[in-house]
Known about the structure:
The complex is a heterodimer.
Chain A: H1 5-27, H2 35-69, H3 80-101, H4 103-109, H5 140-144, H6 149-164, H7 176-181, H8 185-192, H9 209-214, H10 239-256, H11 264-267, H12 281-297
Chain B: H1 4-24, H2 36-43, E1 52-57, E2 64-68, E3 73-79, E4 82-87, E5 94-97, E6 100-103, E7 110-112, H3 117-120
Antiparallel strand pairs in B: 1-2, 2-3, 3-4, 5-6, 6-7
Amino acid sequence: xxxxxxxxxxxxxxxxxxxxxxxxxxxxxxxxxxxxxxxxxxxxxxxxxxxxxxxxxxxxxxxxxxxxxxxxxxxxxxxxxxxxxxxxxxxxxxxxxxxxxxxxxxxxxxxxxxxxxxxxxxxxxxxxxxxxxxxxxxxxxxxxxxxxxxxxxxxxxxxxxxxxxxxxxxxxxxxxxxxxxxxxxxxxxxxxxxxxxxxxxxxxxxxxxxxxxxxxxxxxxxxxxxxxxxxxxxxxxxxxxxxxxxxxxxxxxxxxxxxxxxxxxxxxxxxxxxxxxxxxxxxxxxxxxxxxxxxxxx
Amino acid sequence: xxxxxxxxxxxxxxxxxxxxxxxxxxxxxxxxxxxxxxxxxxxxxxxxxxxxxxxxxxxxxxxxxxxxxxxxxxxxxxxxxxxxxxxxxxxxxxxxxxxxxxxxxxxxxxxxxxxxxxxxxxxxxxxxxxxxxxxxxx
Lengths: 298, 138
């Protein structure tokens, strides 16, 4: 296995969570944490490291195989590192957008969003089923472009480490230039919000510029209090349910759907239903906009 | 695989220590709805939309019940120190006992509404459209 920066960052993650707990206690932010929620988040995080250890070898093999058939070989030249990091972040943006817009990928990603809290422990709610969901395909183009598999994995690890510290309400706003280019706690709070105005926005990993470029950016506006989680809040701290509930729900929907609609429950946007009985995030936003317009006109 | 087991055990210990610390530091209080406005805001986040026309808050802020203009009924139930909206099934019996409101299909829920509990007794909740599967992202 190549060098894994995430493994070395874990003690820092623990220390930062400790610091956030103390800060929350001292400032009276009593709702920032909840001990069972923290337990679920950390257990999901621990489980994800096991899942990663079990499937990491396969991911490496796939990257190596793809790199081997590539007509390009960039090698380990110094300039490849920043280029690889930026392109990996673009690949992450595409992955992450798909993870919210295709139910198959959402089933794997949803546990990252299933907490109603937004703190550093939430960051560790990582997928157990990412490999099964084929999430690795989003990084294969980098290997095909000639980047070394080890370099891609290190950049992916650094990207994941960057995303840890933005899962906090402690940091409000950062200097304007930083907010313009980088993903920040403010931008990522929007991403974890269930408020209609914020649904399916700010998919960025490290650089928020992708959202600005591709029209998925929303700024935190402070008009109403951000509520975190998922539209259908779980209402349980059950670890297995938190990890697998969407897979079960999707399987149930496919089972019960008419034949011609079965596949649609896998690849269409979460919330889609063949009989229109549910709402997608676009429908929720439209309903909210209609409600707002009618209030304004009264 | 050398080093994997110690790393896992170390992580497991760290997880247990952090959870214990979170508990010890007092992050174990039940959720409390501060006002009807807050409850109304949370009801509006219900899947499929829900605009309360009639709303009652538990005396301790531990829960809330609301009815919309279509006759659908929903409750806010505590989940840790947060709340989740739960639809009340169509036709579910709503009864009062000593100032507390009880809902047939939610045996663990008890809303302390005082005299206001009687206002909700006999409410015939209209059914909700299917919302059982997770809609979409946060």
